[in-house]
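Researcher: Next entry in the queue.
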Amino acid sequence: MFNHLIYQIKESICTITLNRPEVYNALNADLIQEIIDAFTQAGEDKEVRVVVLTGVGEKAFCSGADLKNGIGNATSLGESLRSNYNPMILSIRNLAKPVICRLNGVAAGAGCSLALACDVIIASETARMSQIFVNIGLIIDAGSSYFLPRLIGSQKAFELASTGRIVEAKECFELGLVSKIVTPQQLDSVVEQTAKMYAKSATKAIGLIKKVLNQSHHSTLEQMLELEAINQDIAGKTNDFKEGIVAFLGKTSPHFKGV
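Model: Structure for this entry, 259 residues:
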């Protein structure tokens, strides 16, 4: 079904692996559409409780837009964003399940935006991030103008966006761009451990948490309080809530099923 990525499911964990190693997993129109399709499929599959997004190889997670590929069938860069990159980012942010980025190597340009769209980023010590757009005379896109200032503040966001400099893994962690950094040897085991934790968690509640947090930066306190009330009603009607209460009162570990 997929030609440019690898789609696997094991123990309720869906792993989506960008598979264009010859161009460091650069994004073209075909790969972008496959990413959208993969996240749509993961969202509809009740077996899937968590998604891991990564890239083939050790050098690159995603090197950004495939510049040799041009902008596909679009007539302008703006049209390319609206028809390709924007739906890709929204497919991740709107997924009602946790998404872990296994940051195995460089994430540059739109590849950096792709990583930042994930809920958790676990990075190898050899990983690097760069908002490289300015180096070819472009502005940041694919959601970076939304994610960066929320993660690291406006001034630091401007600095990274206006210089396009490479940020090593240690600084990425110190700035708050990534959740955790580990050795290359530890990357797979730590990602797997984290994914298994989410695969056994209250998936419905996590999806609602994600939905609420997506609204928080452009809503008032009153709006957020009402949004919490609406979504807490939904969470309170799940089987996981019932299981959680029984386990809490019985002083046992809950066995959540994600419904």
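Model: Residues 203-250 form a domain with the Lyase 2-enoyl-coa Hydratase; Chain  A, domain 2 fold (CATH 1.10.12.10).
Researcher: Noted, moving on.
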